[in-house]
Design goal:
This is TetR/AcrR family transcriptional regulator. The protein has two domains: 48 residues, Homeodomain-like (Arc Repressor Mutant, subunit A), CATH 1.10.10; 128 residues, Tetracycline Repressor, domain 2 (Orthogonal Bundle). Helices cover 67% and strands 0% of the residues. The chain contains ten helices and no strands. The chain is elongated and about 55 Å long.
Length: 198
Amino acid sequence: MAGAIPVDTSTEQPSARPMRADARRNHDRLIGEARRSFAEHGTDASLEDIARRAGVGIGTLYRHFPNRDALMNAVFQDALCSLLDRSRELAAAEAPCRALVDWLGAIVTHAGEYRGLAHSLMSASRDETSALVQCHLPLREAGAGLLRRAQESGSVRGDVSIDDLLQLTNAIALAAEQSPDDPELADRLLRLTLRGLK
């Protein structure tokens, strides 16, 4: 997202008062435990188990994160910031098409860290009510900037859309997730994507 404008990715409800210290600790413990559980069990890990491991009740989890997508959005903020930073680094690359594909590859790598994330991101792209839209929209904007630059350079066809590329990228991540015995699959599919873009 060259020139991307950061969006408010906070999962907290607007409030006149800052979060109390104990509530902040619970919030941070829940995110930490969710990150571990998602990495170990996938994004469909038990929310009750996450709350128990964080030392809180399920009601406390839902007060901070009203649903699974809201919790996932909070967990993935660090990765989102890294992907946005990477898009800014690639915005001035000499080979705009290669920069775009490198950035798409970074998304595949991120999605591959958590089983089920690619599927959730694909679903969120079509559901404007999902909290994961807060991840999808800035990624879409960042990718659109890289795609536009590649198209302006003449290295990518003009009929390619960022929405199609993000869906394709999530599909590659999902295919790689389903084929753990083929660690090169994602790279092969991305190379095919590069050929199709030109």
